[in-house]
Specification:
This protein has one domain: Nuclear Transport Factor 2, Chain: A (Roll), CATH 3.10.450. Helices cover about 25% and strands about 45% of the residues. It contains four helices and seven strands, in the order ααββαβββββα. Strands 1, 2, 3, 4, 5, 6 and 7 form a seven-stranded mixed β-sheet that branches. The longest helix is centred in the first third of the chain and has 26 residues. About 20% of the residues are buried.
């Protein structure tokens, strides 16, 4: 392996650890820890199929997620798959991360599921290492309301070309 491949492999492992840490923080509902993995100027843009929203900074993101999962007695955030594009020499990376949320509603005890994809932009600095810089989340399926004809509501799969996106900024 050459030096470029060594750096990319090391960065790949660090970025996967970062994604796994995010899943752990969300599952444990440890919102203050988001400040350790998000750049202070990090933004989160949401497309939930039936509504959209934007949040800036780790505290605002944590409050939104915390408020959203408060109604669940059980909540687990699972990373299903991830694809990364890394530019080690430029301290930049982007990723597409597919997720599954397993949930139990406190009020009813009903199991619900949500599936989505994050398109993430990462930045690395010498002090903090890799951190989330921009996040775009899109839902593509979730448990349908009780009165719906089908079990799952399905939305178009959000897509972004990682190879061109990494070079855009």
């Amino acid at each position: 392996m050459n030096q470029v491949q060594d750096h990319e492999t090391t960065d790949y492992i660090a970025l996967r650890r970062l994604q796994n840490r995010y899943a752990d923080i969300v599952t444990r509902r440890a919102w203050p820890e988001l400040a350790e993995i998000f750049h202070p100027d990090c933004t989160l843009n949401l497309e939930l199929g039936d509504r959209s929203a934007e949040f800036a900074g780790p505290e605002a993101v944590g409050k939104f997620i915390g408020d959203s999962v408060a109604r669940f007695s059980f909540f687990q955030f699972v990373v299903l798959n991830t694809v990364l594009e890394i530019r080690s020499s430029r301290n930049k990376a982007v990723a597409r991360m597919y997720i599954h949320e397993l949930r139990v509603e406190s009020a009813t005890g009903k199991r619900t599921d949500a599936y989505g994809v994050y398109h993430d932009r990462f930045i690395r600095d010498e002090t903090a290492g890799w951190r989330f810089q921009k996040r775009y989340y899109g839902s593509f399926s979730r448990t349908a309301p009780d009165d719906a004809a089908e079990d799952q509501v399905v939305f178009p799969l959000p897509e972004r070309n990682l190879s061109t996106w990494i070079d855009e900024s």
